[in-house]
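Repro:
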Amino acid sequence: MTGHLLDGRYKIIRSLAAGGFGETFIAEDIKQFGKTCVVKQLKPTFTNPEALKIARRLFESEAQLLNRLGDHDQIPYLLAYFETNEEFYLVQEFIEGESLEKEIVVGKKMSEVQAIAILKSILEPLAFIHAHKVIHRDIKPANLIRRKQDGEIVLIDFGAVKEIAATQINAQGQTQIGTIIGTPGYMSSEQGRGKPNLSSDLYATGLIIVQALTGKIPPMGYNTTDELYEDPDTAEIVWRQNTNVSTAFADILDQMICYDFRQRYHSAIEVKQALDSLIGDGAIADKTIKLQKTRIQDSSAPATIIKAQQSPNNLAPAPKAAPLTTKKHWAKTAFRGFQRFVAVSLLIMGLPISIYATYETLNPNVIQEERDDAMAALIILGLPFTGSGAWMLWSLHRRIRKEKFDSDWVHQSFYQVINETQGEVSILRFAQASQLSGKDAQQYLETKVKEFNGDVWRSPEGETIYRFKL
């Protein structure tokens, strides 16, 4: 198909990979100045018109799902989808990078720190799709791409799309999957029976980390020394004797790769929480590392490769290497705590005096001398204490708010989200990236819209979108 033009705009450059369900190509979008993209061709295994009709409906549904999942930075977003000659096509962004097959090799053991870094990066997109109740179905090193731009791992090649090509119609007119989706060795027992769940993805992910730690491949039935040992009585994988890791981290991995899915974590969200808890407790050293990133090799290109977006030309570049959280000096924190204490104390003393003095002053049944004393108390104590306390709290709030809005972290988050979303930012997306409240995120975006001459519109789902011209 090299040189063919699909959908009037996607020119096929070369083939990346081919399989039983279709083929993957590198292509150029001639309507986007030759921008590189990935085209995935899905070839249905049936000729039944009714099956084709059902597959078409499933294809559109899965394409819409992929489009929503593409909102995450570590999941390729969908550029287009279409059907030609009863074959389905997905067009995705292109990321330059290498699959984890280049890093996780037989005979090479990674350190615990390296394995933790890989697991943390994988859990980010996996927790996102699990929050949407989506099962990947085909997690393996080839489907995990180390992005060259920043070293993060991108999750590609969702198995749910392959099910469309394998859809069949039985005698009763019901849809069924003719082929089990997944990769031997990384496929859990329940997935092998055609009944995957969220924990099936955890099984594959855990095996990848165990493989990285031990330098041994998952059990494949070859009975070689390069394979991990599987207990014949329990079907559990025995691996701890092949590496040196902390007991706490090993316990997490064992629960991920447990044979009985009921004994595993239920989703990547739970694994992420368990890992964060161990790091927070000091049981595991939280060290950030960057593994070596290399160029793409044509001979071993992954099934799907995606490319990071370029920074817009007319927006200021995002600051580099900003910390994820800003550290406050203890003296500054203590001083602000003291300010709040003084302000609240003044209000506690001033408000009762002001209320009582005002009541006494306005009460006609009180003698004039006591009314004069009450007025003096109001002027000397009540109003100054109340006013000073209120002013201190207000000015402190203004200072904190200004520092929050002017911080390098918020500015970097803004430009990063702009780059990731092609200039269309929702309040929720920016609030999650910047760690601001929803109200603060909205006010910040409204300020930036005016600064960059952007506009505001409402999506079909009713969400407010701030659009910036790139």
